[in-house]
Amino acid sequence: MITLKNIEKVYQTKSIETVALHNVNLEIPKGEFVSIMGPSGCGKSTLLNIMGLLDEPTNGLVEIDGTPISNYRDKQLARLRNQKLGFVFQSYHLINDLSVLDNVELPLLYRSGTSASETRRLALTALEKVGLSARTKHFPSQLSGGQRQRVAIARALIGQPEIILADEPTGNLDSVMGEEIMNILLNLNRIDGTTIVMVTHDENMAHKTGRLIRFFDGQQVSDAKTATYNFQQV
Amino acid sequence: MIRHLFKLIWNRKKSNFLLITEIFICFLVLFGVLSLVVYNVRNYTKPLGFEHENVWLLTMRPSTDSSALNHQNLEQVLQRLHAFPEIEHVSLSSSNAPFAFSQMNNNLSYGNVKDLMADFYEVEDDYDEVMQLQVREGRWFAPQDNASHHEPIVINKALQQQLFGEEDALGKVIPVNDSTNYQVVGITDYFRAGSEFAAEGPAFFTRINLQKNPNSFWNEVLIRVKPGTGIDFEEKMVKQLSAIGKDWAMEVSTLEKMRQNKAKLTLVPMIALGLVCAFLILNVALGLFGVLWYNINSRHGEIGLRRALGAASGQIYRQFIGEVLVLATLGLLLGVVFAVQLPLLQVFEIESVVYTIAIVGAVAIIYLLTVICAFYPSRQAAAIHPAVALHEE
Ligand SMILES: Nc1ncnc2c1ncn2[C@@H]1O[C@H](COP(=O)(O)OP(=O)(O)O)[C@@H](O)[C@H]1O
Ligand SMILES: [Mg+2]
């Protein structure tokens, strides 16, 4: 569970001050599939980075499973990211000089106590889940966009994280490939119970998730359970 | 993690090839220069086998061709030199006095050893006193040698070992030509007179017998003066000697001055080589730094990703330092494979320990260099904010 309390994020560049997030209060309970929508530049990625412990809010409190992490040090944050979180990015962020299998194994490299053979087994299982068992020896440059994103998802789920944060995971893909990725994420949520927070520009995809939060200019403007279409103004 | 680093570097072998080659070449140059330095320094720390302080070298050039007359004058010069209270000992010498820029050698054969090249020095009975030579077996030349059947020689340790091995050298007769045989009467301790930086080679002394050779002439005299004797005496001495050898050119030098000149012959090229080497290393270091800087800057996305997946800042730092160390290790392994051929094949007659020290030294310097070059870029990489690094791509 992630809780954000009164989050404020201000970017200070030279003389310009950008308020990327303003007074954001959110609770993402365990097992939810939440989608976040909003125009470009409204602070969605900033929000995901703060939830993902990659960035610190200027003001406000981030709690993971009820524990505030504001005074955690770099090492502790890294361990939390490694154990509880999985990331999927719009631009995949695969390492081009590593094979598919090696890319998927990366998170376990930063987790002590997993043997090489166990790591390999988990990576193969993760690749099976995304339907890429046949491409383990390939390099990212030899794959299509959809395949690359599936490798990235396998990488996100190998460590069995409680939460997956996906920033426009289908943003670079055509609708067919996007659909495939969406189905993988939906299965992850339904079958494995993984909490997922996904930024998207696609209304259809957003409505397949359980909850839709809309952002505008750094602020939540709506938060609703999609099944009931019960919009509630914030 | 080590396996992961090797995998990364292997998969980037094309772009790493240049870096490894650069490290390899840098190692070879360093190894060469260090071998030379170690060789010279090791020789320098070994004893010379004589004391050159307070020894002067008098060089005379007669003006006439009459050898009988010159010989006569030479005897008078020696008598006069002995009479000076400032002078302790005097000995004629062939032109290869210690630290002189001239050499004399001869081939010796004995038993299975054929044509062993050895330096030889023609000296008088007082030479051991002039140079304060230590004879450790047998004896130095003495008047009793006037009556000896063979020509007496004193050999140094190196000649003894190379010509006779384990055998007792004293009394051994070495045939030289149809009419002459050498007979070993003494063995000196360490003796090397060419240069402080030269290894000890085989050498022997033959005895000058002035009375027996009435038409011969030697134009160098080694003189041991009392400590503290200076330029005043030198002028007085040359003036008085000039009265004997009319129109002879006379020149006095100290062995200390000759030592310094001889040392320059080794030191100047060594320093020049050292400077060239330092310049090369500086260039390699700058190149290495540039490449690492560029590499790390082009890998911001990867750094951000690794941070997101759970790498702490320190792990990023260690990864980049580790990559450079792996690269250096590959270049060095290649270099060491080449370098060990020199001692294995005995290309030059240099002790293996010289090469060993040079290899260890060069490896240490290269590791240090690469770590220094990698230090700053790696620290920069570790300091990159993960959100910013991911945002850039
Ligand atoms: N590192 C940064 N430095 C300065 N401004 C930033 C930085 N990251 C984002 N911003 C600004 O913050 C605002 C929100 O950005 P972002 O969260 O990326 O928006 P979105 O993902 O919704 O398109 C934008 O105005 C953007 O220009
Ligand atoms: Mg964004």
Automatic annotation (TrEMBL), chain A:
<keyword id="KW-1278">Translocase</keyword>
<protein>
    <submittedName>
        <fullName>ABC transporter ATP-binding protein</fullName>
    </submittedName>
</protein>
<dbReference type="InterPro" id="IPR017871">
    <property type="entry name" value="ABC_transporter-like_CS"/>
</dbReference>
<dbReference type="InterPro" id="IPR027417">
    <property type="entry name" value="P-loop_NTPase"/>
</dbReference>
<keyword id="KW-0547">Nucleotide-binding</keyword>
<dbReference type="InterPro" id="IPR003593">
    <property type="entry name" value="AAA+_ATPase"/>
</dbReference>
<dbReference type="GO" id="GO:0005524">
    <property type="term" value="F:ATP binding"/>
</dbReference>
<dbReference type="Pfam" id="PF00005">
    <property type="entry name" value="ABC_tran"/>
</dbReference>
<feature type="domain" description="ABC transporter">
    <location>
        <begin position="2"/>
        <end position="234"/>
    </location>
</feature>
<comment type="similarity">
    <text>Belongs to the ABC transporter superfamily.</text>
</comment>
<dbReference type="InterPro" id="IPR017911">
    <property type="entry name" value="MacB-like_ATP-bd"/>
</dbReference>
<dbReference type="InterPro" id="IPR003439">
    <property type="entry name" value="ABC_transporter-like_ATP-bd"/>
</dbReference>
<keyword id="KW-0067">ATP-binding</keyword>
<keyword id="KW-0813">Transport</keyword>
Automatic annotation (TrEMBL), chain B:
<feature type="transmembrane region" description="Helical">
    <location>
        <begin position="267"/>
        <end position="295"/>
    </location>
</feature>
<feature type="transmembrane region" description="Helical">
    <location>
        <begin position="352"/>
        <end position="376"/>
    </location>
</feature>
<protein>
    <submittedName>
        <fullName>ABC transporter permease</fullName>
    </submittedName>
</protein>
<dbReference type="Pfam" id="PF02687">
    <property type="entry name" value="FtsX"/>
</dbReference>
<feature type="domain" description="MacB-like periplasmic core">
    <location>
        <begin position="23"/>
        <end position="230"/>
    </location>
</feature>
<dbReference type="Pfam" id="PF12704">
    <property type="entry name" value="MacB_PCD"/>
</dbReference>
<feature type="domain" description="ABC3 transporter permease C-terminal">
    <location>
        <begin position="276"/>
        <end position="386"/>
    </location>
</feature>
<feature type="transmembrane region" description="Helical">
    <location>
        <begin position="16"/>
        <end position="39"/>
    </location>
</feature>
<dbReference type="InterPro" id="IPR003838">
    <property type="entry name" value="ABC3_permease_C"/>
</dbReference>
<dbReference type="InterPro" id="IPR025857">
    <property type="entry name" value="MacB_PCD"/>
</dbReference>
<keyword id="KW-0472">Membrane</keyword>
<keyword id="KW-1133">Transmembrane helix</keyword>
<comment type="similarity">
    <text>Belongs to the ABC-4 integral membrane protein family.</text>
</comment>
<keyword id="KW-1003">Cell membrane</keyword>
<keyword id="KW-0812">Transmembrane</keyword>
<feature type="transmembrane region" description="Helical">
    <location>
        <begin position="316"/>
        <end position="340"/>
    </location>
</feature>
<dbReference type="InterPro" id="IPR050250">
    <property type="entry name" value="Macrolide_Exporter_MacB"/>
</dbReference>
